[in-house]
Amino acid sequence: MNVGAADMTLLAMALPFVAAGLAPYLVRLMGHRAAWVLALAPLSIFIHFIPYAGLVANGRHVTAGFDWVPSLDTRFEWFVDGLSLTFAFLVTGIGTLIVLYSGGYMKGHPQQGRFLSFILLFMGSMLGLVLSDDFLMLFVFWELTSVTSFLLIGFDHEREASRRAALQALVVTGAGGLGLLAGLLLIWNVTGVHSLSGLLQSNEVLRQSPYFLVALILVLCGAFTKSAQFPLHFWLPNAMEAPTPVSAYLHSATMVKAGVFLLMRLNPVFADTPAWHTILPIFGGMTLVFGALLSVRQSDLKQMLAYTTMSSLGLMVMMTGFGGEHAVAGAVLYLVAHALFKGALFMVAGIVDHEAGTREVTKLGGLLRAMPVTFAAALAAAVSMGGLPPAVGFLAKEEIYSSLWHLDPWSLTFLACAVIGNALMMAVGFVVALKPFLGKRPHALGDVHEAPFIMWVGPATLGALGIVAAIAAPFTHEIVSSPMVSAVLGRASEIDITLVPHIGPPLALSGLTIVVGIVTYLAIAPFRRAVGGVLRAIGWGPDRGFDQFVRGLVRFSHAVTDRLQPGSLEVYMTVTFVAIAAALLVPMVVFGELPSMPTWPTDVTFYELTVMAIGIIGLVAVLIAHDRLTAIVSLGVQGFAVALLFMLFGAPDLSFTQFMIEALSVVILALVMTRLRLAPSDHRPTGEKLSDAAIAIACGAGFMLYLMRVTEGSFDATLSDFFARYSKTIAHGHNIVNVIIVDFRGTDTLGEISVVMVTGLAILALIRIRATRTDVELGDNDPREQHDPREEGSHGKRTYAGVEAE
């Protein structure tokens, strides 16, 4: 790939983020008409990728990038083949229509600029995800889609339902993302490659690894949570709390298909293994059937479409895992068909809600004359969703039935799942497309009119494309379907199915699907009541289970916080010093690294003994002190003794620093303690004194033994020689200690100064503040002793970390 094309691709990937930054300002200047300007960004990207279609149609792929984190051997690299190019077209093509649709749907909304910004941020994240080649790049964009979808789902953040749905989607998909990260790191460690293109060429290394199954499960965690596979599906229907443009974009054409994209991308790596051909069909089949049954129960247009999206995702996962050329072809064709018809139907549902004021299908009817264009778009989309000719959904269904038609129990089981799921989805699709428009209009709807062009152009375009793609099937296969299937299979493959019917079992199964779908459509009300009754009898489900899990997690965290953070400084210090003692002593004892005990030196001078005696006297003074002030002053004697040792052994700079630190410490502690009564002596019971003494002795012994063990080793003069050699030539300083502190460790010194400064300011605040109540006893007549109601709840409870305790 030439440098200019690579630069243009990089610019195309960055363009949605630039447009997102400009969106609020353009909306402020132009109002809802800013959508026309912002739609040029995804449209330009769509046009940029058109020349790539010829390359991938000829079996080629394009990869380019640059070093991102060279120290980690990580590149910002993109990979364009039939799979990623198709997704790029869906992300940008449907994204263009969604931006326009949002301009009309959100017209007059005070936060329209923010909404369009979020949509474009998500668009850039999804585009980066499908084009990513490097593992780290893939994960970054994967998580960006979760974050941006959180912002979009919770856009109406004043509503509790929106906040809950957004948090639920973030928790589920975010947790799956962590699993994906672990899987990618494991694959990187096993194979030594960190790019998807490289992994496709070294798949045998992973398959032969004992960690293959672990890596597969971790990757499936990410894919299944993102694509809402049972039983992790519950976040998807709840995400319908988002504005309709979000549902039409994220939850039909882009985000929820990220998991399917990942499975298709890794199909050449994991396919032809028993785990792959078992796990994916089972979970996909359950998701297909359960999603279709749950969609029949709903009466809200968006909820009906949401559960059929879940069902469709299950169908794609099932076919991807089932294996075989026809199965993958069916999954690919259905993915494209689903993006077109589901995006159109979601936008139709939004138009109906926008114009009629309700999404309840039982309250709708008779809108055909008022909204003929919307009805035509809905009907075209429903034909494709029902798998009827002349729509691309028909081609997908025929390929699916052709791949599943085998007379063995395994194939027949999933064939039954496909027939039941497709029939129910067909019924729901025509309920959405026909019920609001046919029949008599309820008086409650009032005056209804057609949506503006900026809103109906999207569903009309997508509905028409679903028909045109099937009529021009040879061209569609050459540009889209065959390159995509080749990428998923990892070998060259061609799709040749057209609208010309082929007499055989697949066509008969299509007829059976249509019959079951028509029966379900005509009896949709009894079906809805029956499924609802079963669900009410079951009562408990994954959605309620998520709430119970979160509630239990919060209670557990509160219990842990109560135990580990009781609000007692004494407990914190005890635990800290016990940990220090254990960290010092246990390794030396366990690994036999205790030092040899030194002998008493014979050349000790009297002044060295004097300094040691001063230290011992200060220690005894601290232990026998009768009041806190005496203990504080006696504690400073230890530091002065150390400073004298530095001075005696030729380190005046360190000695001066030590004198300053000890003097400052004594002054600060004395100032702080003036807030307390310094006269009382240690009032701890004897047992507590002994335990504290044991901990103190253990810490002291640990440091002593550790330093003795270090000094027994040979002295490494590398650093000393370095500083002596370069202190003058590089730092231009004669005093090596000063040069180390100011130049070589300047940043560290700056941090230490900052800590001292912040500590000093905090102490100053403590000295100046007027205490209202403290946990220590004040004088009987001290005017500062008064009750502070802030320390107790309204019922006399202590509160900390948001938790109440008696």
Question: What keyword list fits this structure?
Answer:
806 residues; mainly alpha; two-stranded antiparallel ribbon; 4 strands; membrane; antiport; Putative monovalent cation/H+ antiporter subunit A; transport
Strand order of the largest sheet: 1-2
Spatial shape: elongated
Tell me how many strands there are.
4
Low-confidence stretches: 772-806
Largest sheet: 2 strands, antiparallel
Distance between the termini: 69 Å
Q: How many helical elements?
A: 33
SS content category: mainly alpha
Helix amount, in percent? Answer: over 70%
Q: Approximately how much beta-strand content do the residues carry?
A: under 5%
Which value, in Å, is the CA radius of gyration? 35 Å
Q: Give the oligomer, counting copies of the same chain as homo and different chains as hetero.
A: single chain
**Average pLDDT:** 85
Transmembrane segments: 6-27, 34-58, 78-101, 113-131, 137-155, 167-188, 208-225, 246-264, 276-297, 304-322, 328-352, 373-392, 412-433, 453-475, 507-527, 571-592, 604-624, 631-650, 656-678, 690-708, 749-767
Protein name: Putative monovalent cation/H+ antiporter subunit A
Membrane topology: Multi-pass membrane protein
Domain MrpA C-terminal/MbhE: 690-773
